[in-house]
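Quick check before the chapter quiz. The format below is the same one you will see on the exam, so make sure you can read both the input and the output lines.
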Amino acid sequence: MEYNKTKVDEAVLALLSLTMWKDGDSTRAWKGADWDTLDRLYQKGLICDPKGKAKSVILTPDGEKLARELFRKLFQD
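Here is the expected output.
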């Protein structure tokens, strides 16, 4: 099935904001999304490398900011 990967990436990043928490100087979120999507977010510099045993992913400062903005845009009235 063909789909707009950019829109999916934006929606996933927005949804990551629901589970974000501070871990020292880092912001983490539970990684429950499709691996291809997480890899694209990593390639865009919005999250740190999602590969590994951790059940969470670290968001970059730009990723954290964009996640919050996209959540407001997509899901708030």
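If your answer matched, good. The mean pLDDT is 96.
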